[in-house]
Recover the amino acids of this structure.
């Protein structure tokens, strides 16, 4: 067990007494005044645990639906909570441009603004600046860019990113970093990682400590084991309440992602949550949980839901395919979500062909339900030392493919 | 009291014993094996009543949300039921083109297909053919047109319209008619009305009687009192379970609509529900209820909700207006809907500016909630002889205008 973290005020692995949730959303039970991670069970490298925050508890491994602009696209917070989600991700880049961080602050913070009293993690904005904004200019102090909405010139530094995340009232704040592109030369990956590590120190200094809130560091270093190790060493020297693995799921592919995790997660503190950013497909989640990851976020279940792609226990299903037009069967017979228990494939097909909003809503809800079921099943498997059996079953189901036509 | 209707099997004004609703949606309580209308109270011409159908009861005056293509755009059936709606309208034209009436029949009918076990009224398709389809050709037997979806050539006659509505399993079927355009000469209105009356006879003959199901006739005749009277006489001679007033809300304006109702509803059988098709704004509903109308449908609350227009007790509000960007107050402080109790104007404004699905969902839900509250308040007012006071309050609220800026 690594013990690099010099923090004293936030390292408690004990769970503080639950207090009643005062919000309308049923998620967010078990709020605590001290941010802490409890490791409850291990199965190989896989970990089952619980994170306590100011806004409620999170059972891990956990999947965080993406609520880019203050809403998980298409769903009410009640519908999101019904899937089993206990924490959402918000995008700093989008929210700073619209409606604006100061405005969200005046309106009581993001939890109140979007009616989600449970935990929220915000990214730092850095990744989206590089993927969405125009005329980006990176220097050692930060990045200047133009808004993709109105072209206005904006400056983002570690200090401003951390301030924005505080104004948003993020439960978990992420360090401002540069997501190293792939491919990159070794030297590019090294200098990019070292820039992110300097920014991690500035992020830590800028972060305002509040009970039950947390700042996570982000490990970079591309696909190079020594750079990843250097990054972990620098971050744990600074000390964070949790550690993310960044710079993956950027085109390196499944095998390189797994190899990079293999050389990174064993170095991370055992008593801190570990978050793999931007991942991924169901098979990626299983592989990463087996390599010791506790938290995930990805737009895949929500974005795919809007375009007609469903994730099921038998692989992906394109509901727009004509084969579903007369099919009275549910999308996934083992799923308990509204789309599967109340509607036929024929109806879901019809909604998507007709471009109806409800089609996006139901498939988004199903996909998030499926992702949350997957995480819950993995938590159960870890508790019973059943991850190997679970993984075999999972792989067999995915390989089996969709139901044959009637 | 008029007593034209020669029907014997469906004239019962008694309420059959309620049976449990077997569907998942909570609407649809009080289903009966005999279709019937009970007049419970009158206040001037305004009527409070109850319709019993095979799929549940409907308290009148009632507003029917429009579920064009097998979904009330943006909402789940649970969300629609939560607004207080007890009956939906489905569009025969849209459903016959996609997913197709025979397909809906194979899948168990529209109630099951869209998970709405409560009553459904379908229009005849005639109005949409004239407003949406290409290359329409009307003859005495029916209408030939090309689908606006794929250009295919389609024939619609009274017999086929009634068959389609049976395949959809409509609780209330509408006669196939021609909606007389406005303006029209007296001779055009007369010959159009007489064509519709011949089609009404054919619709009645084609309708397959089923316990708890109903066929409604449609009064035409433009804005001409004698033609409306002739139309009522012809329809009541045939005999229907309910009577609609068609050919209004087509550009004639509020005053001519009211004048036409004034000369039409007094002629209609007192023991049958009366339905004003395609109406309207909140003030139109109040005016028409005062003139003896029991049922309404209109796309206004749903369509407006998607584009950012809200109906409130203080008139309409355009939530996209910049004045709402920082406003923490609810849209309508007297409204109990989720949009008003859980979110600020600032959040709703943000969602609509950002083009988020949830913005359409919440405003649609609010508008339907407001419409259903309006109908409920009118039912209560009629029961207590309070329609005059209600109307004064309603007019005062609408005239007051939206909240002043903070």
């Amino acid at each position: 067990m690594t013990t690099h973290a010099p923090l004293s005020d936030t390292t408690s692995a004990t769970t503080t007494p639950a207090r009643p949730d005062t919000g309308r959303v049923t998620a967010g039970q078990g709020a605590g005044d001290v941010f802490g991670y409890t490791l409850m069970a291990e199965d190989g490298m896989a970990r089952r645990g619980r994170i306590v925050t100011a806004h409620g508890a999170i059972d891990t491994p956990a999947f965080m639906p993406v609520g880019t602009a203050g809403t998980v696209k298409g769903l009410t917070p009640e519908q999101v909570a019904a899937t089993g989600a206990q924490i959402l991700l918000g995008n700093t880049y989008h929210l700073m441009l619209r409606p604006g961080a100061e405005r969200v602050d005046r309106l009581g913070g993001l939890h109140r603004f979007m009616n989600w009293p449970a935990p929220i993690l915000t990214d730092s904005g850095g990744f989206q600046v590089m993927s969405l904004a125009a005329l980006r200019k990176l220097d050692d102090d930060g990045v200047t860019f133009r808004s993709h909405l109105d072209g206005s010139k904006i400056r983002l530094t570690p200090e401003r990113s951390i301030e924005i995340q505080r104004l948003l009232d993020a439960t978990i704040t992420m360090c401002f970093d540069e997501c190293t592109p792939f491919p990159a030369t070794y030297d590019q990956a090294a200098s990019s990682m070292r820039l992110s590590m300097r920014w991690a120190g500035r992020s830590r200094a800028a972060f305002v400590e509040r009970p039950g809130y947390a700042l996570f560091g982000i490990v970079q270093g591309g696909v190079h084991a020594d750079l990843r190790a250097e990054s972990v060493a620098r971050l744990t020297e600074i000390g964070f309440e949790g550690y993310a693995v960044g710079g993956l799921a950027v085109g390196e592919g499944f095998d390189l992602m797994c190899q990079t995790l293999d050389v990174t997660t064993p170095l991370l503190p055992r008593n801190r949550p570990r978050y793999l950013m931007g991942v991924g497909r169901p098979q990626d989640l299983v592989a990463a949980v087996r390599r010791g990851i506790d938290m995930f976020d990805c737009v895949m279940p929500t974005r795919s839901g809007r375009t007609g792609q469903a994730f099921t226990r038998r692989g992906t299903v394109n509901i727009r395919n004509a084969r579903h037009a007369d099919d009275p069967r549910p999308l996934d017979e083992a799923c308990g979500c509204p789309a599967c228990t109340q509607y036929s494939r024929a109806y879901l097909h019809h909604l998507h062909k007709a471009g109806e909003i409800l089609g996006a809503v139901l498939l988004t809800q199903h996909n998030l339900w499926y992702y949350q079921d997957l995480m819950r099943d993995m938590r159960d498997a870890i508790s019973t030392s059943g991850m190997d059996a679970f993984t075999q079953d999972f792989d067999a189901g995915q390989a089996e493919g969709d139901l044959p036509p009637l």
Summary: The longest helix of chain A spans residues 357-383. Residues 305-395 of chain A form one domain.
